[in-house]
Every structure is written in structure tokens, then in C-alpha cells.
Amino acid sequence: MALLDRSEWYGLARETNWTPRYVAENELFPADLSDPYGLPMKAWEAFDEPYKVSYREYVKVQREKDANAYSVKAALSRSKFYDSADEGYLSLLKLHYGAVSLTEYQACQAQGRMSRFSKAPGMRNTSTFGMMDEMRHTQLQLFFPHELVTRDRQFDWAHEATHTKNWAVLGGRHCMDDIMMTRDAITTSIMLSFAFETGLTNLQMVGLAADSEAIGDFTFSNMITSIQSDEARHAQLGTPSIEILIKNGKKAEAQKALDISFWRVWRLFAILTGIPMDYYIPLEKRHMSFKEFMHEWVIKQFVRQLNDIGLEKPWYWDMFLDDIENHHHCQQGGIWSWRPTVWWNPPGAVGPKEREWLEKKYPGWNDSYGRYWDVIIGNLLDGHEEKTHPNCIPVICNMCQIPVSNRPGPKWKARVYQLDYKEKRYNFCTPVCKWIFEQEPERYKDFETIVDRMYSGVIDPPTLPNVLTYMGIGVVSNGGRDGYDYSWINGYRKQAAE
Amino acid sequence: MADTDDLSKPLKTFSHLAKQKRRPSEYEIVSTNLIWSTADPKAPWAMSPDMPLSQWYIRHRNQSPLRHDDWNAFRDPDQMVYRTYNMLQDGQESYVDGLLDDHSRNEHDKGLSRHWLDALRQLYTPGRYLVHTVQMSSAYLVQLAHASTVENCAMFQSADQLRWVQRIAYRTKELSKNHPSLGFGTTERRSWEDDAAWQGFRELMEKTLTAYDWGEQLAALNLVAKPAIDEAYFRQLGHAARRNGDTLLGLLNDAALIDSERSRRWTKGLIDFVLKKDGNKAVLDGWVKKWAPLGDKAIDDFCAALPESPEAAGEARTAAREWRKTLGF
Amino acid sequence: MAMLDRSEWYDLARSTNWSPRYVGESELFPEALADPYRLPEAAWAAYDEPYKVAYREYVQVQREKDAGVYSVKAALGRSKFYDQAGPEWMGILKLHYGAIPLTEYAACALQGQNARFGRAGSMRNMATFGMLDEMRHSQLQLYFPHELLSRDRQFDWAHEAHHTKNWLIIGGRHCFDDVMMTRDAVTNSIMTSLIFETAFTNLQMVGLAADAENVGDFTFANLITSVQSDEARHAQLGMPLVDMMTRHGKKAEAQRAVDISFWRLWRVFAVLTGIPMDYYIPLEKRHMSFKEFMHEWVIKQFDRQLTDLSLERPWYWQHFLDDIEVHHHIQQGGVWSYRPTMWWNPVAGVGPEERAWLDQKYPGWNASFGHYWDTIIDSLLAGREDLTQQKVFPPICNVCQIPIANRPGPPWKARAHQLDFEGRRYHFCTPVCQWIFECEPERYKRHESLVDMLVFGRFNPPTPDTVLKYMGIGVVSEGGRDSNGYQWIETYRGRHGHGPKGHVSPLADCALTPKGNKRLWVLSRFQGDGHVKTVEIDLDFSMDEFARYCAQFSIGHHAKDQPGKTLRVRRTTAKDDAAPFPREMRFGACEPRQMDSFDVYFADLSDRDREP
Amino acid sequence: MAFQKVCSKDDVWEGEMKAFTVDGTDIVVVHAPGGELRAIQSICPHQEVELADGTLEGAVLTCRMHLWQFDVLTGKGVNPDHAELALYPIKIEGDDIYVDVVGIEPKFSHA
Amino acid sequence: MAGKRDDERKNSVGPVLRAGEMADAVMQALEEDNPGKEFVVQDHVAYLRIETEGECIVRRETIERALGRPFKMPELEVNLTSFSGRIETTEDHMRFYLEKRL
After folding, report:
1. CATH 1.10.620.20 region(s) of chain B?
2. What is the pTM of this model?
3. What confidence category does residue B1 fall into, taking pLDDT thresholds of 50, 70 and 90?
4. Could you tell me if E2 lies within 8 Å of chain A, comparing CB atoms?
5. Nearest CA in chain C to D63
6. For the segment C561-595, what is each residue's pLDDT rounded down to a tens digit?
7. Residues of chain C with CATH 1.10.620.20
8. Which residues of B are less than 8 Å from A15 in CB distance?
């Protein structure tokens, strides 16, 4: 055996810290981009990424992964799957590609920041691979939906979404800009690699794969699980950062970074993953409920890991558990009602059988969310489709950018948490979003929600057509309509007839 | 007549490419117009424009004197996508594996002279620090690129450097195993920080890394520092290696220069692209003038220490300059 | 420096002929392996393969193809497709994998022969790629079924089939040994590259791919189309040779090579591809009928290809067109009836809807083949599954090795064409197979079909068990059974014409068995039956007994009574006009010889006294 | 006038090809990179495979099934080079593409 | 709610793999490399979750035996979509573990 083992030379390849002479250390590693926690260079040299790969291995393995993903696409593109795919499922795909493809590309820059500004040589090398990974994810997730634009213009959002100011996009950008685009290398490694990539991307990239397989979309399930196999590696950047911070007396700071980012990402993924899982996937193909999935992946797998590296569950844990029961159900109602403002066709999809399933998975659903849908169903049965559009403007949270809502029904849970700061009033959906704002009001104060923009004159005049155009609706593609053209109420029509 | 703005008509490609009215390549589909943080020059991010990172982008990217009104029009002459990059480099790495394996079987290291081993310890193995700085600097270009087509090139460039950081580390370890008493694997940092041969490159790279204006970093790195490193550290050191019976290093450095060729192709493409806009020539001239002496000095310092290579510095300086000349400087 | 174009150096790479000095030309290129037609040196120098590829291009393209095929397998390996695939589809896969992979591997040796004995440098080069291609095909088609082994042992036939003496394998080997393993480089290029790989592999590899996609087996569809994409290159070997032969006065020889191989391959592929297409693919997934496919891919193309090559249609063209309507339907009946001898579970595929489709695609199907299946359905409805399995062997064609049969029904089409040669009697399904034999009897005369072996007493003891074991059944895996456990007959229950109890002829219950030592193998040709049967007869039988004895094996394995009529026996003649034997006459009294053919038919009772 | 309007240039972009039927004749309109337009026979001269399902790289069209290649500008076979595609006269008026199929039969190739 | 609280306190570790040949080999190797350990396998079609208590290791050479061909540890990444617990990677093994026991 003539070649050396990786372990023999790997350490040397990350002994690359040196003491700058011609420029000052804080010039080479400005605190804002590098390490605001003020740990010495030496402390970061202990950084040991648990998942190791060499460049030689990387290009080989990644080449194989791509050969696999692209070949499967090529082979199956002749199958007629998308011709006859369920409209709810197509909505899931549109939502996915619109939300994910270019966000992955932004992550290249975030990885680039870690690669340039981290004081930990191990992190600099590992995020070079991370950067490449994110490029891969972007390219896959542009190339795959590209062929779908010939069928349906709403797939154009795969490329266009983040270039628009659609309210859903603003929500995603606010979150991602916060956790990965405007933080130093260390905080980014906690927020992006640990909270986001270790904690929550599994929901979308692995969870949905099971449903996709059931539905027969092997191309998609193969692609997203292949993507996730990259995450499993580079997401490991976060844990050593946290361990080093804890070891150097910065546990509170690490905890705060986690608490902020976990909540932010949760609020987003519940929409991105929760709604499709519990509403868009046809009932007979559903693998498990979003809640069960959260248990498997987040509560069991992620939190246990969190614990093992020495952090605590976020302070708002009980609120989080409660939110798992509510958030995405509320937003399903909201998105469906405001369907003309989104780029996919959200199915109402709460027929009698679906409701039974929802009630079983989320006890109490019928008495709360069910009542909300009862009114809608009643209107549809009476032929008053127009009454199923709210024709008013919701209050949008100044943190997560999502309409403020909570479980309907007798308990009056929906409530706005308000804060006045520098003569401006801010609205929040939950105490947690409010708490995040309060940690760093200067960071968040200037951003206007889509609704703020209607009042502040950014969208002028704030008429519905103007707002839609501003959001890219009618520009990139038409807005959404009910995914099943209301056929899901047929079950109720039959019940009424009987 | 089909109209891409007519929403009732299906698209043949993403709307932003539909205007070309030709079938887009895979490269175009997956690489173009992916950045949206340039849309509002005053607020790159949803976070407050006053935030340090927002300010950073505004100052160092948006307000760079190197300007173009349509950065997205740039195209990589190699039209490299991630998929093809890995195919290419997997092949290249198989070749390097083969080199290492063969030479190791032939006990190549045992045959090296003490004289040359000293040179390797002084001038080759500390190079991982140097190449790593290029990796970092390229990553900076990634972070602040105006257009995805530029950003991707920088990403491949950064990954290429990591490739050589690891191959140098590999060789360092191999040399230390075959010659345990010579300090391979332990003295590199000291050489990089203290040896006169390295101080030119160290100064060049420390300053390049902190030239935070995006355009200036591009000029300093890709027009001056990288060519200097290619010519001195890879090419001239490779020549010297061959003269000293170290065929392995000669071949390894040739392989590294293949990556550099690719980097030069897109650099030339990008420079040609920006020079079509008024004002950029002067800006770049200024930077080249400012950085070239540091590059020359780095070459001189390094080549001076190269054994039996009196002509090395001259050749390297000329080669770097000649290349810049082909770009118009 | 820029790279040269392929065209700049390509000719040099194929200018590799030289004049031998230390050995004779005919030693270096023995005629029997190289060129018995003695085409002139100049002709060989001009050999120009139309499809060119450089080694550098070859490895790159093939690597990509393999990446595609293996990736899809890996990705879809997770799907539950094979868990849910119907028995029909699994039957197709077993048939395919049993028949194909090792045949592909044998083709490596064929390509090797061409790479060594081809008289043109370029032919040798192309065959080198051909050799690699065939290796690819055998490896892919061994690796893919391998994972199916854990589900079903019958997939072991993918590797084992060719090591057994299963009768279908004997048939396949006889054909391929003839067209590709025992010919000189010129002839085998015409027979294999031009005829087999251009005309016939598409049937299986392209035709089934469309059905595979419909059924949802993307792995298989992707596999076989990828395999077929290789044929472009090496299938090109034969074409320049035909040109050369016609130009150098060897047109008749080229024509004969075409005529022989086309027929031989047709007979095999109709079974391999025709049966699955028209019977195994679930009705709603059928892409087109086998006949339509034959028209598109073979008749249209082959015909104009021949014209282009200045060759004629084979002299048996009309036979061939007839055979397209019949051959695979009759073999479907045979394969299903002999299901215990197969390595997959044959599909009947003749529910009422399927029959409507068949009759539409093949007008007259119901009146002929339908009749055959009716008696089977009746037996099954009557709970007499035992009557639906063949108990005797059919005579087997000494060329194609396929049971001798033809369209059942009123015109007595099924008939054995016989030839006595050097003291042995040979049987052929058609005049074409007989013609092939007569072209070169020395080539074929020693081969014994399975039935020959039985008749010649090669099995000891000659029990069904011994024969099955000889064929690998019960050794490699269990033999076949009806693919869905006869569920398909349920739709017939209670229908008109198929009473719930069914109607089984008392003739079928005839318990006659040959006794004593005065026994003889003869051919029974039963009126309306599509299959000719071999029966071992007791010379002491009366003609009535002989008729009853034969009835139990005939028309779906039992003949219905026809009230007012009785069974008569006569010799088979060319015009089917021999007079019947007296009913009480001892069979031995007509002085039958081994394997003579006799007709058994229904006649009015009033005919009883007509004597020969 | 045997020329018939088939489609507009926008239906078949540079780098694309598309199948049409003109007067009962199946054709493929190919828009080669560089802007040249051609109308070619729809079926591969080799065997019954739709050329429109193949791939177009530069002016070289590769059939999906057996990888035969043709230069769409001249109709000549690239590999194998004995094969040839029938070309139909084509003319462009404004954005409209006209093709004349009269009297031209698809070609086929032996082997 | 009791169930949820319990979930957070389990010590489950192990790989999450795309189902297929590789997953089968890993499963077989895990059994061999961790004698006495009980593995729970959940088949979610698109992925297999393999879990055991506290710690487990899977070795390259064991996978090689299970696959019947040479294997390099990084190849596992092609099918390793996630894992529970923490990870340690070398060229000869992959280890999934938790430091604390709850």
C-alpha cells in the first residue's frame, strides 16, 4: 500500500494559521465577520470537524452522486409522471423550488464567509466544501425544475421567486438574511450549520422524499436525499464551534444564537414542509404526519444532539411544542384564503376523509380548524366562491413576516404581541418573535413587512392589482387558485344530499 | 406569435432566459442571475442597512470603483458547472494519485539529495500556508461577487487551492516519514513566518487578503498574486525540482498549473468583460500598478532562495507580466 | 497543441494488413474461419465500416452509459416496484433474463472471431469494440436480475439457463450456434450483425422498453434501451460485406446467408418477444401488438433494407407473413400447457377482454386459437386442472427446435414436414426449416431434439421426472405454474358457452395406455388442433382405440364429443385426402413406421363403412 | 405554391427541433445554433425512431436509439457517413417558417 | 405530552440511509461490528433509520465483506442522508455516539 492514509496528513492540511505581520490580526479577521466573541486564535485551532473528507475523496464521491442524480432524471424524464401528477403534489414542488433553489445559492456566500473569515483552519477547509455543496444544490434545483416550465409557468418561480417581493419570499429572505447573510463566521456556523442544516433541513429533504416515493416521483426523492447527504457532512461545522464557545465561557452566547435561529427556521419550515405534508400530499400517499415527523427528526434526533454538546433546549420549548400543533394549520388556512397571492395552487383538500385523518393526528383539529373550514365549505356549497376570499389585509409579524394567527375556536388564542420602538409600532405573532426583535432592535427595525409597505407608500396606490404586481403575481406567472378546483368539497355535497 | 410575457403561454425555459430565443445550455440554466442582494444598492439584506455586514457589502461590493451595469452578462469561457467540475477534477486527482503511488513504490524520496531536501523543507512544504491564503482570498471573491457567473468561477478557484493545500500536506507527511529528522511537518509555520524567502509572498497575501474592496481584491489576487505564485512557486520550483532529480514535484506542479490555466481563462474573460466599460481600465491600471511591485518582490524573494536557479526570478516576473499584458496591462 | 481530428489518423489505425512471409496466407486466415468466399484482397482493402468510433470516444461514451444505467438501478432499487409488480411482468423478466445474458456472452467469442479472422483491419477493430459491448450486455443482464434472486429463485435461470438442457434453451442454442458460433467471419457478420442485431434485437430491446415504461419498470426500460444503443456500432459490421459479396459475384451466397438466418431468428424471437407482448403485458399497458411491431420494425425496414443491398426478399416471404399471424399464438398455447417445464410462471392472458383484443388485432383468433383455449377453460371450470397440462411431447422441429404446430381449426394446417436422411427421419415445422436443413444436412444431422432423445431411448427411465430433471426443472428451480393460480377463469364462470360445471368429453377420460412390447412412436394430428403430438402407441390398439387415445392429448388436451359423429383415423397425406382405416382394424396392421403421421378426425357415422 | 406555413421562428428556437406534419408528411424543423433553419425527415434513416426525440449539439443531431449522427445543415450522415436525411425546401418570411414537402421522400439507409 | 418528553431523553444513535444495496450492507456490518447490540430499523421507503442505544460503529472491512467488493469509507456518504447522535469519521470506520447518557 503505497498511498498514505488521510489521517496521516489531514492534520497538517489544517495547520494553516499564522501570525500576520504586515497587517493587524483584526484587519485580517475583523470581529464583525469573524469572531465577535473575542476568543484567541489559538482557541480556534482546536476546531475539529467530526466529519472529515479530503479533496480527493470529495470530487470522487460528489461526481458519483451527481452521476446518479442526473442519470435518474434523464432516465425518468421519458416517463409520464409529471403529465398525470396530482395537482397538490405539483404545488408542493412549486413551493419547494421557489423557496429553496436560490436560497441555496446565497448559502455559497455564507460558506464563503466561513471559509475566509473563520479563525479555525478546520472550518475554513470544511466550508470550502460547504460552498461547493451549496453550488451543487442550486444547480440541481434549477436544472430539475427547468424542464417543468414547459408544462406550467408557475415553475418559473424556481428561478424568479427570490428576485420578486412576494410576501412568502420576503419571509424567507428575512429569516435567511438574518441567520446566514449578516452574521460573523462563528455565529453563522451555529445558526446555519447547526440550527438550520442539522436541525431542520431534514424535514424538507428527507421527510418529503418518503412522500415523493409513495407518489412515484423518484427523480425528486432521489435528488433531495442526495442533497441531504451533503448536508449530513457540512452541517457538522456547527458542533465544534459550539463546543469551543462553551469551553471558553461563552455558552450563553452560543445558546442565544441557537435560540434565535431555531425559532426563525422553525417558523419557515412549518410552512414549507408542514403544509405540504399534511395537506398537499394525497391522503392515501401520506407517509406520516408533519407532527410525527417533527418528533422523529427534531425532537428526538436534534434535541438529543443539542443536549449532548452541552446546550439547553430553547427557553420557549413549551411554546414550540404548542406551535407544532397549530402554526402550519393556521397558515394552511391563510395561504389557501389568500391563494391569489402565491405562485402555486394550494389545494383546500379538507374533504371528510382528510378531516378524519387530521383529527386523528391532531386531536381537537375538528373543533377548531374544522370550524374555520366549515364556513368555507358552506360558502362553496352555496355557490359563493367569492366569499372564500378574505378581501382584507392580515397583520404580518415584524419578525417572521408571516400573518399573525393562532388556533381558532373558543379560546381566542390569536393575538398580536406589540412593541413600540423609536416611535414605531411593531407587531409580533408570538412572544418568541418579539423576544428576538428585542435582542437586537437595530438589526430589525428598518425592515417593512408587505403590509407596512402598503401603508408607507412603497406600494402606491396600495390597490390589490398593484400589490399583486409588486409581489410578482401576474408578472412571473399567474397567482394561485384552488389546486383541485374545489372538487374536494364533493364529499360534503354527497353528505348534504344524503 | 409566442410572447414570453404572455402568461397564458407555456415557457420553454426560465423566463429570464426566454428572451434569448434559443435553447439555453445547462450552464446557463443553472448558473445565471442567481443573486438578488444586488437589486437594492442601499440595502443588500433584509436586515438594517446599518448593520456591519450590510455596510460591508454596500461599501466593498456595491461601491467598488470597478463597475459594470450588467455583471450578470459575464460568462465563464469554460462554461463549468458543478457536475463537470467534479468529473474533471476526479480525473485529475486520479492522475495525481497515480503519480504519488508510482513514486512511492519506486522509493523516490529515498533518492533525493540532502541539498534538495533542505530546499523542499524551506521552499516547498511551507507552501501550504501560501496556497491556503489564495483559498481564503478566493472565498472572499465568492462572498462579494456581483454575479453568480463570477462567483462560481471563484468557488472553483477556491476549491482548487484546497486541493493543493492537501496535496502539499500529503507530500509533507510523506517526506517526514522518509526523512524523519529534517523537520518536515513541524517547521513550515516558522519558515512561512520568518524565512526571508517567504516574506514577499506573505506580505503580498496578507495585504491582498485585507484589500477588502471586491474589485481590488480581484485585481490583487488574480492579476498579481496568483500569477506570481503560479510562476514562482509552481513553475520555477518545478523546474528546480527536475534539475534536482525530483521528478515527482515537477509533475505535481505541472498538474497544479493546469488548474491555474483554467483560472486564467476566466480571469481573462472577466477582465475583457469589464474593460468594455468606460472607467474600468484606469481603475485596474491603478491597482495593477499598486500591486505588481509587491508581486515582483514576492517572486524575487522566493526565487532567490531557489537552488541553482539564477534565471528563475527573471523568468517568473516576465511570465507574470507577459500574461498581464495579454489582458491589456 | 491542438488535438488531431479522428479522421486525420483513423485510416492509419486500420491499415494493419500485411503479407505474411513465415506462414501461408491460408494458415493465418483459414477459410473456414475467415472467408470461404475468397473475396479478393482489394475488396478487403476497401472495407469501410460506416459507423466509426475511436477507442478514446468509446470508453468515454460507454462509461457515461453505464453510469446512467447503474444509477437508475440504484435509485429505483428503493422503490417497491418489484414488490408490487404483477406475476405477468415478472414472467417477462424471467424469460428475458433466462434467454439473453449468456447468449450475449457467447457473442463475445463471435466478435472475437471477427477481431481475429476478419480480413480487413477495420473489421477487426470494430469487432474489438463489439466484443467489449457484448461483455457489457452480459454483465449488465446478470447484475440486474441478481438482486431479484432473493425474491424468487426462478431468476437463477439468468445464469443457469444456458447450463441446462431445457428445451427452450436447446432451441435458442441451436439457432445461435448456427448463426453465430459455427460460421466463418464473413457469414457470421451477415447473419449476426446484419440480420440479428439490425432486424431482431430491436424487437426485444426496443419493443419491450415501451411496455416496461408503461408498467413502471423504469430500471428495465432504461437497461435494455441502453444495451440497444450499442448495437449501432457493431451491427454495422455486416453491411459492407454484403456489398462486397454482391459486387464480386457472390450474391447468391449472401442471399442464402440472409435467408437462413432471418428465418431462424424469426422463429426464436416470436416466442421470446411475441408471447410477452401479446399475452403477458397487462392489457391496459400494451403499447402495440406484436404484429404491429413486426410490421413497423421488421417488415417495413427489412424489406427496404434488402432492396437497398440489392438482395431479394427471402423466397419464403409469404410463409413468413402467415407465420406472423400464427406462430407465437400457437406457441403461447404450448408454453402455457407445458408450464411445468418452464422456468417462469406462464401467463394465460386469455380473459374475455384479452380475447376481444386478440381477435381485433388478429382477426380470426377466436375461431381458431379461441377454440383451443375454450377446452382448457372448460376443463378448469370443471375443476379438472389435470386435463390442462400436456402429458405427451410434441414432435419438435429438427431445425428450430420448436414444437411443430400451426393454426388450430378447420383447415388442417399443423403438419410435420418430414425428411428421411441417411436412415434417420427428421421432422420440420415448415418447408422453410426443411429447406434450411437441406441446404447443409451435414451441419444439422447429428443434433437430437428432446423428443428425438426420448424416442431414441436416451432417458432412463423415460419418465416425466427424468426428463424434467434433464431440463433443469427441480434442479435450478421449480418449474412453472399458471401465473395467477387460474384466477383468470373466474370471469368465465356462468358465461354462455361455459357452463358452471363445464363440459368435459368422456373421450378425455379414456384410460387407455399402451401395453406390452409392441409399441411405437407416431405423430398424431388431431382435427382442429394446432399442435401435432407424439404418442407412443400400442400396435394392438384398434383404430378406434388409437383415436380415443390421441383425443386425450388434443385440442386444449381433450376433444369434445361431437354428437352424431365418430372418430376416424387415416394416414397424413399432402392433400389430406387419404381414406380412413376400418375402425376395428389393429393399428399394427397398417404397418406404421417410427414417427409416421396419422390424422384423427370426426366423421359422420354414415361414413363408417367407407374402406380404404 | 407547395410551400406551407409550418410554424413561427419562436416555436423552434435556436438549438431546438420540433416535429410537425405538413400535408400528411411528418417533418422535423431544426433550428441549428447559429441560426440556420432546416426541415428534415422525421424518422431516422436507420430504423423507425423519431429524430425529434434525439439530441442536437451544434449542427449534429444524434438519434436517441442507436446514436446515429447527422449534420442537419447538409443532411449528410456524420456517423455512419453513408446515411443521409431528406431535406425539405424551407423558407422564412418574417417570423414564419414555410416548408415544401412535395415530391420528396424520406431516405433510409441499409444496415 | 409524556411521549414527547421521553423522546428527548432517549440515547438513540445510528445512521439514516437511502435504502438499497448499501443500506443492507451497512445493516449487516452494524450487526457484526457491534455484537450484543440491538438495532431497531424503521423503513420509510425513501430512507431507513437504523438506531441503537448510545453508540455504534461500522467498519470499512466489514462493509467490504457484506458488499463483496472493495469499499472506501467516504463512499458511504452517497447514501448517508442523516444520522442521529454525533459522528466520528476515519478511513476505517464511522462511529455514531452520544457522550452523555440520559
Report:
1. 71-327
2. 0.87
3. very low
4. no
5. C229
6. 788 888 899 999 888 889 999 998 999 999 999 88
7. 38-274
8. 128, 188-189
- pLDDT above 60: residue B2: no
Range of the domain at E22: 12-97
Question: Which among C72, C78, C79 has the least Cβ separation from residue A71?
Answer: C72
Interatomic CA distance for residues B80 and C348, integer angstroms? 55
At the top level of CATH, which class does the domain A46-53+84-313+320-497 belong to? mainly alpha
Write the CATH number for E25.
3.90.56.10
SS3 of C604, please?
Answer: strand
Cβ(D8)–Cβ(D78) below 8 Å: no
Strands C519-526 and C597-604: parallel
Chain A residues with CB under 8 Å of a chain C CB are: 67-69, 71-72, 74-76, 78-79, 213, 216, 218, 222
Identify how many contiguous H helices and E strands chain A contains and give both numbers: 25, 2
Domain of residue D24, CATH code: 2.102.10.10
* pLDDT score, position B4: 66
- Selected for mutation to probe chain E from C70, C72, C76, C78 (highest E CB count within 10 Å) is C78
If 0-12 CB within 10 Å is exposed, 13-18 middle and 19+ buried, where does residue A368 land?
Answer: buried
The whole-angstrom separation of Cα C128 and Cα C116 is 9
Question: Can you name the CATH fold of B71-327?
Answer: Ribonucleotide Reductase, subunit A (1.10.620)
CB-CB under 8 Å, B22 with D15: yes
C-alpha cell at C24: 501461408
Residue D67 lies in a domain: yes
Which residues lie closer than 8 Å to E44 by C-beta, 6 or more apart?
A210, A287
Which of the four pLDDT bands, split at 50, 70 and 90, describes residue E2?
very low
Close Cβ partners of C286 (under 8 Å, ≥ 6 residues apart) = C211, C214, C277, C278, C357
Cis peptide upstream of residue A431 (ω within 30 degrees of 0): no
Instruction: Count CB-CB contacts under 10 A for residue D75.
Output: 18
**D111 with C305: Cβ contact below 8 A:** yes
Q: How many domains would you assign to chain D?
A: 1
CATH fold for the domain made of C38-274:
Ribonucleotide Reductase, subunit A (1.10.620)
End-to-end CA distance of chain E: 18
Query: Do the chains contact at A287 and E80, CB–CB below 8 Å?
Result: no
Q: Give the residue numbers spanning the domain of D55.
A: 4-99
Whether residue B21 and residue D15 make contact (CB cut-off 8 A), yes or no, is no
Q: Is the pLDDT of residue C25 over 50?
A: yes
Contact yes or no, A with C (3+ CB pairs under 8 Å): yes
Pairwise CB contact (< 8 Å): E20 & C78? yes
Interchain proximity E19–C77, CB inside 8 Å: yes
Contact state of D15 with B23 under an 8 Å Cβ cutoff: yes
Q: Under CATH, which number does the domain C506-604 receive? A: 3.10.20.270
User: How many structural domains does chain E have?
Assistant: 1
Residues of A in contact with B46 (CB under 8 A): 170, 173-174, 177-178, 447
Nearest residue in C to E23, CA atom: C78
Contact status, residue E96 vs residue E87, Cβ threshold 8 Å: yes
Report the C-alpha gap between A304 and E98 in whole angstroms.
9
Do the Cβ atoms of A51 and E89 come within 8 Å?
Answer: yes
Query: Which grid coordinates are listed for C126?
Result: 470494430
Show which subunits contact B, needing at least 3 CB pairs below 8 angstroms: A, D
C72 and A79 in contact by Cβ < 8 A?
A: no
Q: What is the ipTM of this complex?
A: 0.82
Chain A residues with beta carbon closer than 8 angstroms to that of C72: 71-72, 75-76
Distance CA(C51)–CA(D67), nearest Å, equals 10
